[in-house]
């Protein structure tokens, strides 16, 4: 077996039965950047061996031209030194169907290709408008049924634009597939640090007793991007930061942080606890939207030393657009554990740096005994770094060496790379492998999707009635100044970007 230092040592304990995966939209960017590299990496590690990959798209490619394209996808980066023989062995497992997504002939051909395979996985990597014809055609060819083994479908985000469209898509899926066949993917849940939240909380006796409103002052969740919308202006105009990041990635992260201890690690047990959290979200009513939410758009500025244009000047963006590129929320959970603990969320584009993190800020000591000595203590903070670095930092107070009792905060750090001496698996590797073995723990369930959309849709409706112009923030900064007003007390401040 080929050994690549960037991939070595990351062996999963799961191994799927022989399968065929069909990627709808196989000529798209997601296939090129994520899906093919993830499948090739799993192949190199020996996690998958008996399989076929079928590309299904409109472009008039042949199997040979699809193989040529995939050859380029696995040519460089961590695969640059992979022996040619291994690449050829992978390419031989590729097939291609050239068809529109609503043509029965294409699905008839696909049916012949997948016949006889024990496992069938269908991946919808297309624009959402194409989901319905694909789902219905799979049903018309009985590809949703498996005489032996399984038939499953992975649906990419965005999963709807509001509660009504999410329900509609769920209803369409339910006419063809059973709920246990449907895998709604959120790649954030495949990140190693996100998965480690459950171990951090429930595998360490020191944290769980403190994980409640008696000891935690507030929580901050930040997903900041330094890049603007780039060439995705047309897509982003239909989405915005609230739909694109909060409803999916950030709410999933929040649910893992705040859920009750599960009785076991079975997929439905964990997903049920997550849904309970989403159902406990205190609704933000129409009159409270301006009190608990802030949105904004980036204007021209400087990001990492380079001048960038504002959102309204981006390609594909309406010059009069009211689409938010930044959103901040102050939310509460109406539960016994979290009553009174504010959770602050912010996400945006063209900010000062790229960072995704969670910061749990603990309450101050009840008595400030060092204040009279010319010093004071700061809130202890546990920071879970998701990207670009993966790890955990615990901020504590310590005495400065010397003859006086001076105190300052110091960090206790854990970094994945240093601790384990190996790279973490790419998110899509884990998620694809889980779908192949039937583990839905890291995928979202129907009630999960619809509960989160119910909360988000109220905010969208409130925004739609708001006549005020969107606040602007300079690209390369930390977002609109109005976001600072969400934090209440002196020791509740946004972490620096």
DSSP strand tally = 17
The CATH topology of the largest domain is given as Dihydrodipicolinate Reductase, domain 2
Helix content: 25-40%
How many distinct folded domains?
2
Oligomer: single chain
End-to-end CA span: 43 Å
Chain-averaged pLDDT: 91
What is the CATH superfamily label of the largest domain? Dihydrodipicolinate Reductase, domain 2
Strands of the widest sheet, in order across it, are 16-15-14-13-7-12-11-8-17
Task: Indicate the proportion of strand residues.
Answer: 15-25%
In DSSP terms (H or I, runs of 4 or more residues), the helix count works out at 14
**Largest sheet composition:** 9 strands, mixed
Q: Uncertain regions: pLDDT < 50 for 5+ in a row?
A: 1-12
CATH architecture of the largest domain: 2-Layer Sandwich
Radius of gyration: 24 Å
Shape: globular
Q: Which structural class matches the secondary elements?
A: alpha/beta
CATH first level of the largest domain: which class? Alpha Beta
């Amino acid at each position: 077996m080929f050994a690549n230092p960037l991939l070595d040592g990351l062996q999963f304990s799961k191994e799927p039965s022989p399968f065929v995966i069909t990627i709808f939209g196989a000529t798209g960017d997601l296939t090129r950047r994520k899906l093919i590299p993830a499948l090739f990496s799993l192949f190199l590690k020996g996690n998958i061996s008996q399989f076929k990959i079928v590309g299904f798209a409109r472009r008039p490619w042949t199997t040979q031209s699809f193989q040529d394209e995939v050859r380029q996808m696995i040519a460089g980066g961590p695969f640059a030194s992979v022996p040619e023989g291994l690449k050829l062995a992978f390419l031989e497992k590729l097939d291609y169907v050239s068809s529109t997504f609503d043509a029965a002939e294409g699905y008839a051909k696909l049916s012949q290709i997948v016949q006889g395979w024990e496992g069938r996985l269908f991946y919808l990597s297309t624009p959402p408008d194409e989901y319905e014809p694909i789902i219905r055609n799979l049903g018309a060819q009985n590809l949703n049924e498996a005489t032996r083994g399984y038939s499953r479908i992975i649906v990419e985000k965005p999963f709807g634009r509001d509660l009504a469209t999410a329900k509609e898509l769920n209803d369409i899926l339910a006419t063809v597939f059973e709920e246990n066949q449907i895998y709604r993917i959120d790649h954030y849940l495949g990140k190693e640090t996100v998965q480690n939240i459950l171990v951090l909380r429930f595998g360490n006796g020191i944290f769980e007793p403190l994980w409640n409103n008696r000891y935690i002052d507030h929580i901050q969740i930040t997903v900041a991007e330094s890049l603007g919308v780039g060439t995705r202006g047309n897509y982003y105009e239909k989405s915005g930061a609230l739909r694109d990041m909060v409803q999916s990635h950030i709410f999933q992260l929040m649910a893992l942080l705040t859920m009750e201890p599960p009785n076991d690690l079975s997929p439905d047990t964990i997903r049920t606890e997550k849904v309970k959290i989403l159902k406990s979200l205190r609704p933000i009513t129409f009159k409270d939207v301006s009190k608990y939410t802030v949105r904004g758009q980036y204007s021209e500025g400087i990001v990492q030393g380079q001048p960038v244009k504002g959102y309204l000047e981006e390609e594909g963006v309406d010059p009069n657009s009211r689409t938010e590129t930044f959103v901040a929320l102050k939310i509460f959970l109406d539960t016994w554990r979290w009553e009174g603990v504010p959770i602050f969320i912010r996400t945006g584009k063209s900010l000062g740096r790229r960072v995704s993190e969670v910061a749990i800020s603990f309450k101050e000591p009840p008595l400030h005994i060092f204040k009279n000595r010319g010093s004071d203590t700061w809130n202890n903070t546990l920071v879970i770094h998701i990207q670009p670095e993966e790890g955990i930092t615990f901020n504590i107070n310590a005495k400065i060496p010397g003859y006086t009792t001076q105190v300052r905060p110091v960090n206790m750090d854990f970094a994945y790379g240093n601790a384990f001496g190996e790279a973490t698996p790419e998110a899509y590797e884990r998620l694809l492998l889980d779908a192949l073995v039937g583990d839905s723990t890291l995928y979202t369930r129907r009630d999960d999707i619809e509960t989160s959309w119910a909360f988000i849709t109220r905010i969208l409706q409130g925004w739609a009635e708001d006549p005020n112009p969107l606040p602007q923030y300079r690209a390369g900064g930390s977002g609109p100044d109005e976001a600072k007003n969400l934090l209440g007390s002196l020791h509740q401040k946004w972490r620096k970007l």
